[in-house]
Amino acid sequence: MRRHRVVVEIAHAISERFGYDEIATPIFEFTEVFKRPIGETTDIVMKEMYSFDDKGGENITLRPENTAGVVRAVIANGLTQSLPLRFFYAGPMFRYERPQKGRFRQFHQIGVELIGVKEPEGDVEVIALGAEILRALGLLDRAELQLNTLGDAASRQAYRDALVKYFSQHAGQLSEDSRARLERNPLRILDSKDEADRKINDGAPGFEQHLTPESRDFFARVRAGLDALGIKYTLNPRLVRGLDYYTHTAFEFVTTELGSQGAVLAGGRYDGLMGVMGGPETPGVGWAAGIERLALMIAEPASPPRAIALVPIGEAGEKRALVLAQELRRDGFSVDLAYSGNLQKRMRRADKIKARAAVILGEDELKRGEAAVRDLDAGTQEAVPLAALKDRLAAFRG
Ligand code: ATP
Ligand code: MG
Prior knowledge:
alpha+beta; binds magnesium ion
């Protein structure tokens, strides 16, 4: 959880510097909210959604991702009146898939959405934001940014036709999944993990030749922006999103450190999504990143501050310790207080929890208005007047 929290806190802080406000959408929505936006032919909708009927007979789904939920919230709350919108989120997502390292059924994502900016500089902004977060986590050099363009609707239609034509000639060798996608979603065949499909994919036509001049120009501006910011990328023509409302830029930060679960942050432009979901046509671009995958890669964060152990002896000491614990905690110390055990047992506990110091409150000491303060690293002990206790303990804060 410490690593997990570091990922979220850093992402949140940097998102704020870019002007992104945190948004929290419901963990579950009506199934329809996800079905069309994510796409009926995608893995997520075909096999990975946790959907069930609630007591009122409504079919609901635990969110498998958050873009659809954010867009739904924007439409439902009339926020399209105040564009552009910049949102950051962090929270649990659910997908029914085979659990393994870096792949869980409940996992967590951070993500951002920039809604209402049609210019390619918007794509540059969200990619730069993702890169800055990775940099702050010490991961930017350990991940490769892969970049592609899907063009606009006209480009996509032209490319789609070319793909259907090409794959139809090889339909016999395609996997069953891919054959099913041939008419409905031929772009998806391009990121198939099937061996046979991959061979056929090698010879497939590229998007490049099918881009309209406008799409070509858009992509050039995205690349120019990334170049200006010194953000390195490689072009990956196989990086696709199969759905019609995905346009222009698609990108993914990929690492080789997590085996086959190498995608840590993925996103793209979705200019058609708002319209598909029943809102006014509004451009959008964003990304999501798996917190567990990022957390696996980062260094162990600094440990929390070491505790001061209070060691009361006898009834008077116990009473004093209870109040002292409260006072010291208010002053910002981390305090450990056990409610039973003799001196020896309590000192052993202080060692075990790696306390920085122990404050021994014995009857005789209290009578003198003192406590015995033991520096557990140095092994030294001294009597300290109770009134000076806080100042003495402050020295252990380092
Ligand atoms: P993959 O190809 O690994 O299945 P995906 O394309 O399904 O990823 P996206 O929907 O783009 O993933 O989600 C964005 C990010 O969320 C991924 O890059 C990954 O870091 C993380 N992620 C996705 N699914 C899981 C999961 N089941 N467990 C943990 N993290 C996940
Ligand atoms: Mg997946």
